[in-house]
Hints:
Two copies of one chain form a homodimer.
Chain A: E1 4-8, H1 23-30, E2 35-39, H2 48-60, E3 65-68, E4 83-86, H3 91-100, H4 104-113, E5 117-121, H5 123-126, E6 156-161, H6 175-185, E7 190-194, E8 197-202, H7 203-208, E9 210-215, E10 219-222, E11 229-231, E12 235-240, E13 243-247
Amino acid sequence: xxxxxxxxxxxxxxxxxxxxxxxxxxxxxxxxxxxxxxxxxxxxxxxxxxxxxxxxxxxxxxxxxxxxxxxxxxxxxxxxxxxxxxxxxxxxxxxxxxxxxxxxxxxxxxxxxxxxxxxxxxxxxxxxxxxxxxxxxxxxxxxxxxxxxxxxxxxxxxxxxxxxxxxxxxxxxxxxxxxxxxxxxxxxxxxxxxxxxxxxxxxxxxxxxxxxxxxxxxxxxxxxxxxxxxxxxxxxxxxxxxxxxxxx
Amino acid sequence: xxxxxxxxxxxxxxxxxxxxxxxxxxxxxxxxxxxxxxxxxxxxxxxxxxxxxxxxxxxxxxxxxxxxxxxxxxxxxxxxxxxxxxxxxxxxxxxxxxxxxxxxxxxxxxxxxxxxxxxxxxxxxxxxxxxxxxxxxxxxxxxxxxxxxxxxxxxxxxxxxxxxxxxxxxxxxxxxxxxxxxxxxxxxxxxxxxxxxxxxxxxxxxxxxxxxxxxxxxxxxxxxxxxxxxxxxxxxxxxxxxxxxxxx
Lengths: 248, 248
């Protein structure tokens, strides 16, 4: 089975509407698939319906139908779907719900072994990683089964990555400081994915660690004990666990 | 026994050195106490000694001795000390260590029932609250016993509080957005404590909910389902769970 994973830093990019910056990318990714399964669990329960409706209206523009994973007739049964999209919101709330409904391993299996396409944005990209330990979100709820994510890739994404502002008088940690703290406790490489950027991962990645960094603003790659590597433009990259090799 | 709690937003304030902005406040708070117990657990284990040494050098300037809670002869036995200071760093790491050494309830008891003075800064202020659920920190390690803090006050502090920047093009959540997310899942009021500010809490708070907001930049108070209240200047406040009353 082919694997296909699209991980977007953020649904909104400054100056454009919901997912608009990724319209062509998403169309190419979904190809002819007429229906996707949407997971609104990063939102508060009271907003699952409205969030799903917003996503439905967006995808309907391209002739793609959307089912909410919480909706009657679906109710967390994912096997019938060819593509899943996990939207942004609060990553702790998202993980909590995925744990409650025992979905982490089911989604992992569907994507890595059964050819289900995976699309994530923001919290939905973070939760696709080994753990959620590189989220920016506030820990508003305790996930009782740990911080492990869906673990589609043995890497960490930091979504909405933002470079340190040298003119700031704020003394709290910069994003780079926080990722360095992560590396005091963990060895997994971190991809600081700037808003406007995405990672596209397919079978080639699992064979040769080659993935595509797409979109407009690039990413910064952090390895424990090394200086970060800034890749400002879209390009193919080979991401070895302790270094990056470009493929022009 | 008198209770006395000093909760500082951040050890560093732009333009001044470690704890310098709070020198008079801390001297008045500690009065004649010749020795404090310092908790460096928000730092990585490899830095506990150097962190404690930095704090020791600072307090020695005022003739105050510092013992590290991890040091030989102390080793997490807190009963002999009249004052405890929990420093800043990563709140998840701090909570993890406090859980490992079973210190949460011991510190709670020492401060609320035995007259031990409590001083916290940043992560050390956050962990003094009901939970750590209003931290800004990255969840670099999983605290296996939940997010409950020392619970000295039935409130939440968000340290390093920063107002939304209206000129920012970043689409990720503002601090206010994050606190609103917290209130989708929790009812506890949140005090967004700006850098340069502190809360001073003593017996009067437990009788009449009166506390002192001190320092230079004030705080913003958030209640679920209400507009936040900005208190820009130092003043006495009476903080009722669903509202604030000033005491000029």
